[in-house]
């Protein structure tokens, strides 16, 4: 179990947050950012982080109170014209009748709570999910590339928020706020029996972190099978390595983008 501080308790009564009607259309997001978001969708599919489900968003470059996210579709097939704009209540700005992801409130409420976050990936990547089920075995950084995970990733359980009769999905602002609260100022939050969400100070960093959250989970599971005590990164190592490795996200991005492009064409 994580040390106190990663509270799972949440008071729905204090959350509020009915979805507002769509706001007026504003300045268009930068075309390069939209193209990067398309590429991010393809990379995450190519790296096995998303399948038919899961989604990635970027904060709007001109309107910090908005974010960009594809319409409701499989990430591998996303193109620039599929990218929609949302406000921080999760309301699409100009969806033109297109359907949107049920779980857009994950993105909306994390962007609201965390001004430092510029990109978010929500996925069901399979190696991470077991750690959401066993709180007594903390999910923590055991590899230098996974250092951003820290010494204990918090687990969000929707049951703590709305009780037993829930669908495990984040489908409104109140639930999104509860998830953002459990994430706190960390980079990864596990979602019990569902998946995980990774954030970054850029879209590319969020993608990088989603990929290495999965890899760290595989290494940690493999180490656990070896049977002995597991040596994790110390708190100091997680901080220092996160700082050093943060600068390399673009190197990974460039390679993955090339691979994703080849996969799409091939
Ligand atoms: Mn989900």
Q: In DSSP terms, counting alpha (H) and pi (I) runs of 4 or more, how many helices?
A: 7
For the record, the CATH architecture of the domain at 27-36 and 103-257 stands as: 3-Layer(aba) Sandwich
Terminus-to-terminus distance: 45 Å
Backbone shape: globular
| Low-confidence spans | 4-20
SS class: alpha+beta
How do the strands line up in the largest sheet?
3-2-1-4-7-6-5
* CATH fold title of the domain at 27-36 and 103-257: L-fuculose-1-phosphate Aldolase
Please bin the fraction of helical residues. 25-40%
Could you state the order of secondary-structure elements as H and E? HEEEHEEHHEEHHH
Q: In this structure, how is the largest beta sheet organized?
A: 7 strands, mixed
CATH class division of the domain at 27-36 and 103-257: Alpha Beta
Strand content: 5-15%
Give the C-alpha Rg. Answer: 18 Å
The unique ligands bound to this protein are: manganese (II) ion
Number of strands: 7
Overall pLDDT:
91
CATH superfamily of the domain at 27-36 and 103-257: Class II aldolase/adducin N-terminal domain
Folded structure, characterized:
Helix 1 runs parallel beside helix 5 (203-226), helix 1 (31-46) packs across helix 7 (249-265) and helix 2 packs across helix 4. With 266 residues, the chain is an alpha+beta fold. Mean pLDDT is 91; it is low at 4-20. It is globular. It has a domain at 27-36 and 103-257: Class II aldolase/adducin N-terminal domain (L-fuculose-1-phosphate Aldolase, 3-Layer(aba) Sandwich), CATH 3.40.225.10. Helices cover 36% and strands 12% of the residues. The protein has a seven-stranded mixed beta sheet with strand order 3-2-1-4-7-6-5, sandwiched between helices. It is built from seven helices and seven strands, in the order H-E-E-E-H-E-E-H-H-E-E-H-H-H.
């Amino acid at each position: 179990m994580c040390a106190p501080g990663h509270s799972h308790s949440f008071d729905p009564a204090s959350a509020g947050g009915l979805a507002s009607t769509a706001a007026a259309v504003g300045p268009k997001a930068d075309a390069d950012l939209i193209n990067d978001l398309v590429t991010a969708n393809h990379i995450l599919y190519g790296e096995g982080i998303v399948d038919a489900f899961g989604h990635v968003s970027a904060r709007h470059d001109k309107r910090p109170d908005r974010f960009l996210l594809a319409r409701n579709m499989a990430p591998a097939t996303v193109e620039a014209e599929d990218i929609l704009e949302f406000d921080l209540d999760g309301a699409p700005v100009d969806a033109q009748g297109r359907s949107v992801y049920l779980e857009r409130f994950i993105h909306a409420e994390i962007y609201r709570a965390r001004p430092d976050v510029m990109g978010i990936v929500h996925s069901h990547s399979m190696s991470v999910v077991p750690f959401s089920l066993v709180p007594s075995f903390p999910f923590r950084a055991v590899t230098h590339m996974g250092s951003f995970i820290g010494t204990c990733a918090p687990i969000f359980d929707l049951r703590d928020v709305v009780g037993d009769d829930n669908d495990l999905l984040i489908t409104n602002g109140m639930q999104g706020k509860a998830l953002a609260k459990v994430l706190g100022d960390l980079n990864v939050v596990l979602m019990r029996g569902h998946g995980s969400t990774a954030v970054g100070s850029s879209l590319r960093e969020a993608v990088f972190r989603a990929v290495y959250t999965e890899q760290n989970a595989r290494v940690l599971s493999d180490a656990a099978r070896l049977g002995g005590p597991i040596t994790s990164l110390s708190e100091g190592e997680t901080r220092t390595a996160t700082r050093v490795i943060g600068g390399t996200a673009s190197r990974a991005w460039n390679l993955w983008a090339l691979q994703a492009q080849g996969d799409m064409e091939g």
